[in-house]
Amino acid sequence: MTNSNLLAVPPVVVAGPARDLAPLPWPYAVSSVELTVVVPFQNPGARLQDAVQRLSDALHAQRISFEVIAVAAGSRNGSAGSLGDIAHTRVVTSAHIQDKGAAMHFGFAMARGAWICFADIEGEAEVDAYELVEHFHLAREKNA
């Protein structure tokens, strides 16, 4: 990852590890997708499922191959269970992940995407899925 691939405004999209490893032979090659969306969360309630579903729908509509990695950061309200039916979504829970910084770090480490971004679903503003898609396209065009 280089700082030149970091966008200045949220959502942030950066080059992922799969971008550099995809052309390499096994065992270095990774099964990748175009975009990994890391969603760290603590206790978002119903907002989690709504936000992840909107992200998934927008990415499907743009025909972008993706994965969503939702990482629980000490969540105690059962929010993680609401994501089971959303395609291309992995949910990570661990007693060792207690804050959102650790959740983001863990999600970025698990990412298989050529590009990685994160979405803060517990912030004041709603996540604009199409803004995220637009920033992804801009980052990809800039480094094509």
Quick tags:
4 helices, 144 residues, alpha/beta, five-stranded mixed sheet, Spore Coat Polysaccharide Biosynthesis Protein SpsA, Chain A, single chain, disordered N terminus
Give an account of the 3D structure:
The chain starts with 12 loop residues before the first strand and ends with a helix. Helix 2 (46-61) crosses helix 4. It has four helices and five strands. The protein has 144 residues and is an alpha/beta fold. The chain is globular. The protein has a five-stranded mixed β-sheet, with helices on both faces. The protein has one domain (9-21, 29-142): Alpha-Beta Complex (Spore Coat Polysaccharide Biosynthesis Protein SpsA, Chain A).
Question: Quick recap of the structure?
Answer:
The chain is an alpha/beta fold and 144 residues long.
CATH topology label: Spore Coat Polysaccharide Biosynthesis Protein SpsA, Chain A
Low-confidence stretches: 1-9
- The fraction of residues assigned to DSSP E strands is 15-25%
> By helix and strand content, what is the structural category?
alpha/beta
CATH superfamily annotation: Spore Coat Polysaccharide Biosynthesis Protein SpsA, Chain A
Q: What string gives the helices and strands in order?
A: EHEHEEHEH
Our measurement of the CA-to-CA distance between the termini, rounded to an integer number of angstroms, reads: 15 Å
Radius of gyration: 15 Å
Keywords: Transferase
GO molecular function: transferase activity
Domain Glycosyltransferase 2-like: 36-121
Organism: Pseudosporangium ferrugineum
